[in-house]
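#structure-requests
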Amino acid sequence: MKFSIKGFSPIRDASIVLDGLTVVSGENDSGKSTIGKLLFSLIKAARIARNKPNEDIARKQTLRTVLNLVFGKDSRRGLIELKGGVFSEPFCTVEISDDGYIAAYDCPADPFLGGIKDATFIDTPLVWQLFNTYQGIASERAKAVDVGDHFPIQYPFTQFDIYSKLNGSVPGRGERLDDLQERIKKIVGGRIVFENNSPMFQRGDEFYPIFSTATGIQSFGFLQRFMELGLAESERILILDEPEVHLHPKWQIDYAELIVDMVADYGLKVLVTTHNPYMSKALKLFSDRKLREEVNYYYSVKEGNFSRLVEDQELEIVSREMAKPMFLLDTLKAWEDDS
C-alpha cells in the first residue's frame, strides 16, 4: 500500500510505501509526525465509523472529528491518498478544504483500509505514567454517556487510544511470542504485569509502580504488552514516533531489533519516524539481515517552511545530514583549541 500527502502543512509532497517496515528520518519540524498522525487518523476513523447508520456520511464526519482531535480544530487543507496493487490508482482519496472540512471523501465502505483494520500511534511513555488517570477518565466518560450528559474533560486522543488497548485482557500466547517477551525481560531486567488492574514493573519477586520506573523500560513495555494482547499482527500498523527519545544508545539498538523481529515474525506493519542515526542504522542493519524485502527508507527534506519526502534506501542522506552536528562540534572544539 502507498500513502501519499500533498499540501498538508508543513508537507508539500510525501509518499511512502507501507509493506512491512517503513522508516522516515529527518530534522525536527519536517513533517515526520504529521505523516504518522494522518495515517493513524484515516485508519482509525474508518474503524470507528463501521456499522454506523448512514455510513457514507458517518465516515466523512468521523474523519473530520478524528482529525480535529489529533491536530486540533485548525486542521489544515491538503490531499491524502491511499493506493494499492502496483500503486497506479488510489482506492481512497480525501481532500481537506481551507476551513478544515472534508471537501471530498472517496474511500471504500470498509473498516479494513488497504487490509489494515487498526492503527496505533505511540509518541511518549507518558501513557503508562497516567494509566490510572485514564482509567478514571474512562469511568467518568462512560457514566456521562449512560445518562446522555456532555463529558467536558479533554484528553490526548492518541494516548487514550493506547491506554484502551493496554488495558485489554490477555489471550492465550504462543511459543514464539513468549520468546520475544523473554528478550524484553532480559534487556530491561523484568517485565510489566497488572496487579488489581494497575500496571506494575516486576523485577524478580519485587513489584514497583509503573510511574516509578525508567521511561526506557516503559517504552519496551509497549512492545511487550502489544505482543501479549495479540496486537502485533498483519492486519495492524504500529506507528512509532521517535521511539529513541527515552532510550540509551544501546537500548535503541535492542529496540530496533525487536521492531524488525515483530515485522518478520508476525507480519505487523510498522512505521518509524526518527531523527537519530543509531535508530536509523540499527533498523537498516537488522532489516537487511531479517527482512530484505518489504522495507522502505525515506528522508524528510526541509525547504523553508515546507518539506518533501525522498527515498533514502541506503541511508546516504541520513549519514550525511545527521553527521553535521558532530562536524559542528569538532569545528567548535578546534576553534576553541586555537584561540
